[in-house]
């Protein structure tokens, strides 16, 4: 018998047939609020933009006609020479830039991605109350690693259709079998002195484009 077996045996003997009260009563109550207040679609998008900005993401708005030029400018500002492109990203999105495109392929290594300047993706959903972007690996988003290794991520959110108020509203709309990535602002951490450092375990810069209808 291993030490692990002995420890687990003691836990089982101590717990016995005890069960959490909620489980004994037939389940955990989920009668909490699904959202905080009622908003129009425009108010929901404004709240998302405000919370993204609080996380130090850079927020931009565009319509389809202006999107290529905006993406071209966002890639040109940091001097990007290469950009990772998911296989399902609409071609016309990047028609306003001549940056070299790197396809998201299974054979691409993390070291190769580290040499790429930027990545442009779509998203699955955005949560207004938390300022969170959710990616699920769909064709316009690509594999998770392409949004974690390059230093600059540009994410396009189709508004208002892809924006929900809260996390409880988002969860039923997402496939739990897919590789979900939840992004709230650029990658950042703080040490014991509260000195903020960005780009530690993900992109240092996050540009979010709120793409409205015609």
TrEMBL record:
It comes from the Bacteria. InterPro entries: FTHF_cligase-like_sf, LUD_dom, NagB/RpiA_transferase-like. Pfam families: LUD_dom. Residues 102-211 form the LUD domain. PANTHER family: LACTATE UTILIZATION PROTEIN C. This is LUD domain-containing protein. It comes from Streptomyces antimicrobicus.
């Amino acid at each position: 018998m291993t030490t692990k077996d002995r420890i687990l045996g003691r836990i089982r003997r101590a717990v016995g047939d005890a069960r959490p009260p909620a489980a004994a009563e037939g389940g955990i109550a989920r009668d909490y609020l699904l959202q905080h207040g009622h908003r129009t679609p425009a108010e929901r998008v404004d709240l998302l933009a405000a919370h993204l900005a609080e996380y130090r993401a850079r927020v931009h708005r565009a319509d389809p006609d202006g999107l290529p030029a905006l993406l071209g400018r966002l890639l040109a500002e940091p001097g990007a020479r290469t950009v990772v492109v998911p296989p399902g990203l609409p071609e016309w999105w990047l028609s306003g830039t001549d940056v070299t495109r790197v396809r998201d392929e299974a054979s691409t290594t993390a070291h190769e991605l580290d040499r790429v300047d930027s990545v442009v993706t779509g998203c699955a959903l955005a949560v207004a109350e938390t300022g969170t972007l959710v990616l699920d690996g769909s064709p316009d988003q690509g594999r998770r690693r392409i949004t974690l290794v390059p230093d600059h991520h540009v994410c396009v959110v189709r508004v208002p259709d892809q924006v929900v108020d809260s996390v409880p509203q988002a969860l039923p709309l997402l496939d739990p079998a897919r590789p979900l990535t939840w992004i709230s602002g650029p990658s950042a951490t703080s040490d014991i002195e509260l000195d903020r450092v960005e780009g530690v375990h993900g992109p240092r810069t996050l540009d979010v484009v709120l793409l409205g209808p015609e």
